[in-house]
Design brief:
There is one protein chain. With 173 residues, the chain is mostly helical. It is 61% helix and 2% strand. The protein has helices at 7-21, 39-42, 52-59, 73-100, 103-133, 139-158, and strands spanning 47-48, 163-164. It has a two-stranded antiparallel sheet with strand order 1-2. α5 runs antiparallel to α6. The longest helix has 31 residues, at 103-133. It is globular, with a radius of gyration of 16 Å.
């Protein structure tokens, strides 16, 4: 059974994760500011629903969003890998766990899955925004992914205050 996280521990862990992800370089210089991490170290799925947007954005707080054109190729790869590992966790861990659960446990896993989707789609949208800023964008795809992200943020907010259960998953960004 997946371990539950408390709201306090999740918020503290998210802050620590964001700090750990940052290095001495700055995005403005094109330096690398993110580090590859294990999925379980970046997961925002546990705790309480309602603040997934802020939790996901905190993981990428070292990225200079005012100067996305300068994001390094290594950081863009980590952002894309964040999408990939969150997608894998959704398909390989969340979906089977939800299918096997009933009642409250299923609801709590579903809340965790929504938070995971917010993480996955935040990474997707950020990656597409960076590609666009660097002259390689696809505005149609960006708009579609932003719509998906907004939908999942709304689902998370609608479940605010409810328990969200994380799943254990092996993978890295």
């Amino acid at each position: 059974m997946p371990a539950k996280k408390t709201a306090t521990s999740t918020a503290a862990a998210t802050t620590a994760k964001a700090t750990k992800a940052a290095t001495g370089a700055t995005a403005a210089t094109g330096g690398n500011v993110l580090t590859s991490q294990a999925y379980n170290d970046i997961s925002i799925s546990g705790g309480v629903a309602g603040d997934a947007k802020a939790e996901a954005l905190a993981l990428f707080s070292a990225i200079d969003t005012a100067n996305l054109a300068s994001v390094s190729a290594a950081d863009l790869k980590i952002i894309k890998n964040t999408h990939d590992v969150a997608e894998d966790a959704e398909v390989q861990a969340f979906n089977p766990a939800i299918d096997a659960a009933t009642g409250t446990a299923a609801d709590e896993l579903q809340n965790g899955k929504i938070k995971n989707k917010v993480l996955k789609l935040t990474a997707t949208v950020l990656g597409l925004q960076i590609e666009e800023a660097q002259g390689n964008g696809d505005a149609t795809k960006l708009a579609a992914e932003q719509t998906k992200l907004d939908k999942n943020i709304a689902l998370d907010v609608a479940a605010a205050g409810q328990t969200a259960t994380a799943v254990d998953f092996t993978g890295t960004t």
